[in-house]
Amino acid sequence: MATERRKAVLLFGAPGVGKGTQGRILGQIPGFFHLSSGDVFRSIDIESPEGQEIYKYSSRGELVPDDLSIRIWKQGLDARATLSMYKPRKDILILDGIPRNVEQSKILEQHIEVLKVLHLTCSDEEEMIHRIRHRAIRENRADDANESVIRRRFEIYREESSLVLSCYPEEIIAHIDAIGSPAGVLLACLEQLVPVQDAHFRGE
Question: What EC designation does it have (predicted)?
């Protein structure tokens, strides 16, 4: 029997644009559950075979292979459902960091139904690099501390990740300016998400 697809909203945008910040805030609202692929990956034991594979790629600023990424992401989602942190029938997933390319978006179609894509935009790449390096110091995230690795992540985003938007109907994509206060960006996100959650609660 086919697995029921989970309702989801995608937080999308370049590295440092604020996806994690908005995802964490939105995840505090009843009926939403935030799942960051970065958090899932960082929670894996670095000494495990999968942990070693992930570190091999992330330390070079390269994307983890699609099949490994989706497998680990699905394990993380299922574990949270088993622990009742995530309630599939009630919660809308707020996904941050996945899908990262067209192939991942195709694989994910088996697992999720995308209700909305929030595309966080920022035209100032240097500002985003500054954000990432500041976050690396604050949160002791070694994968974000190396500037050459950060710039490589932007190259990959331009080459692969930005094409993901073409996988979804234009009518479900909302472009949101991510420059400004977190509260201001949150308000713009909520203006898009309130109708989505209302429809979900009504069973539409």
Answer: 2.7.4.3
Q: Is there a binding annotation on residue 135?
A: yes
Of 180, 170, 11, nearest to 94 (Cα)? Answer: 11
Is 18 annotated in a binding site? The answer is yes
**Residue-level pLDDT at 192:** 98
The answer on whether 114 is annotated among ligand-binding residues is no
Is 16 labelled as part of a ligand binding site? yes
Domains and CATH numbers, the chain: 6-199 (3.40.50.300)
Answer yes or no: is 69 a known binding residue: no
Is 37 a known ligand-binding residue?
A: yes
Rounded CA gap, 52 and 34, in Å?
A: 25
Candidates 131, 174, 138, 137; CA nearest to 154 is 131
Q: Does 6 count as an annotated binding residue?
A: no
pLDDT digits (tens, 9 = 90+) for 87-96: 999 999 999 9
**76 annotated as a binding-site residue:** no
